[in-house]
Amino acid sequence: MYLCYIDEAGNGQTLDPARPDAPPVLVVGGFTVHDSHIKQMTWDFLSLKKNFRPQLRRAVHLSEVIHTEIKGSDVRKDIRAGNRDERRAAMLLLDSALAMLERYGARLLARVWVKEEGRAFNETGVYSTSVGSLTETFQAQLLDCHSRGVMILDSRTKSKNAPNVHCVTTRKYRAGGDSLKGVIESPVFGHSDTHTLLQLSDLVVSSLLFPIACHAYLSDVTWNVHCDDAYRPLREQFGERLKKLQFRYQDPVGKWRGGIVVSDRRTAQSSNLMFGSGKPAAVSAVIPAQQVDRGELSST
Questions:
Q1: Cα dist. 84→73, 89, 98, 216, 230 in Å?
Q2: Tens of pLDDT along 92-111?
Q3: How far apart, in whole angstroms, are the C-alpha atoms of residue 115 and residue 25?
Q4: pLDDT, tens digit, for every residue of 209-250?
Q5: Residue 202, domain extent
Q6: For position 175, what pLDDT does the model report?
Q7: Does 44 map to a domain?
Q8: Would 59 be classed as within a structural domain?
Q9: Does residue 10 fall inside a structural domain?
């Protein structure tokens, strides 16, 4: 069985010079991992937190270590505006987080939405579309592994949570049959202080994918605080590793799908910019087209 942990970075604010701190991208994504690795991966992540937040070494109760989060937004701030030691510590933290994903065979999946300046952004519709797309990628991985799985999404509010999974629920229970058979239940919601690996998902999405997307696709938006050249080292040092961690597959007509998919509404540039290259992305896990039933995928 596989678990898929999903978080988001960004929101529906319009990209506008009047709001220099408005997120210029919305990222919905995370990672999948086999359930046999969950316990050890959790212990390793708690050790990582103690290593990079020394005050946690003095914690009396395990719950304190679990509840205390290293927020991706704080890591980004250290990279963007911290001193030399803070920047170095942030980069070492992210290097360790990626090494953990690599060690346990995790696979990355994400939808990145690059906003257009001055245009309204439908956060609800985009988030729902992202969840549907990520569920398809997860289903493809489960099919490839002859396994089943559950998705755990970082909880927001009930009014935001419910619409984002209806598309999955209806696909599973419609009269025409379940097109997501490997996903045993509609995505469920968890809180990061009770589902520790959601914190790791936050680091991936908020500390890596979000700033890399800002640097790759919006470097000319100099008035926005998130579009900072200080994020260049993230793209240069971690881009290739992110590319190799993707799960990608071919649909029935031979089109590559999955992995980290970018919808660039400004200039329609390739998703490969996330990895610091304009070259075709490497494929770390592949399903031949003939193994995917045509009814199990829709275009994204």
A1: 18, 9, 21, 23, 12
A2: 999 999 999 999 999 999 99
A3: 6
A4: 999 999 999 999 999 999 999 999 999 999 999 999 999 998
A5: 2-35+69-296
A6: 62
A7: no
A8: no
A9: yes
